[in-house]
Amino acid sequence: MKAVIYCRVSTKKNTQETSLERQEEELVKLAHDHHYEVNAVIKDQASGFELDRPGVLELLDLVRDKSIDAVLIQDETRIGRGNAKIALIHCLLKEDVKIISQTHSGELHLSESDSMVINIVSMVEEYQRKLHNLKIKRGMKRAVENGFQPHKNLKNKGNVDGRERIEVPVEEIVRLRKNELTFAEIAATLRGFGYDVSKATVHRRFKEYMTSLDHA
User: Fold this and answer.
1) Domain map of the chain by residue range?
2) What distance in Å separates the CA atoms of residue 110 and residue 115, rounded to the nearest whole number?
3) 172 CB-near residues (< 8 Å, 6+ apart)
4) What pLDDT, in 10s, does the model give residues 53-89?
5) What is the DSSP secondary-structure string of 42-89?
6) 185: left (phi over 0), alpha (psi -120 to 50) or beta
7) DSSP one-letter string for 124-190
8) Catalytic residue flag (residue 10)
9) Phi, psi angle pair for 43, to nearest 5°
10) What's CA 213's distance to the chain center, in Å?
11) pTM for this one?
């Protein structure tokens, strides 16, 4: 199994370098004891209350790439403090990445209050996903009821001479807009039918269409 070692100290004082080195040495041993292959050693010299840390961003990139199984830390305060700690632990756990703590000689044991907060955050995220999917489903239903025929509009022709322009059915954007769908709802509907478009793209194409009518 592959792991990343994460070390942090709060300031950039030279005296803190010793602490970083000690954390790394102890966590390398912890990885060996738990049979983890260390893929990377990441070090931060920043406040634990801050999320904008170079090491944290690198760590999250590795997590999203699904290339690691665990993160090794000295204790939970090294990964962060306050809300930053909760947010980062949540990000790691929802990606099924284990957090191995030297203090606990194994998986990190969260306090009852921290566990409760993370469970609440997970529950909220799940309901947000459900609401988002319901919004897409409703938008798709309204679009079809108003004459949108997705099977006739799924061909996307790229521009071989330069940057590819996202192809979207502008006439359907106009039709859905006239039926009082918001730009966000239209974008969600089109994504449900296979178009990789944002609300901004939908809004821009609608404005382009209306401007062309004004100049006609």
Assistant:
1) 2-110, 128-215
2) 6
3) 143, 148, 153, 190
4) 999 999 998 888 777 899 999 999 999 999 999 999 9
5) EEEES-TT-S--HHHHHHHHHHHTT--SEEEESSHHHH-SHHHHHHHH
6) alpha
7) HHHHHHHHHHHHHHHHHHHHHHTT--GGGS------TTSSPPPP--HHHHHHHHHTT--HHHHHHHH
8) yes
9) -130, 135
10) 40
11) 0.61
State the CB neighbour count (10 A cutoff) for residue 116. Answer: 11
| Class level of CATH domain 2-110 | alpha beta
Question: Which residue bears the tokens 């191995």?
Answer: 100
Rounded to a whole number of angstroms, the CA Rg of the chain reads: 24
**27's tokens:** 């966590």
38 φ, ψ to 5°? Answer: -80, 115
The catalytically annotated residue of 10, 19, 47, 198 is 10
83 neighbors 30 (Cβ within 8 angstroms): no
Distance CA 178, CA 89 (A): 45
List pLDDT tens digits, range 176-188. 888 778 888 888 8
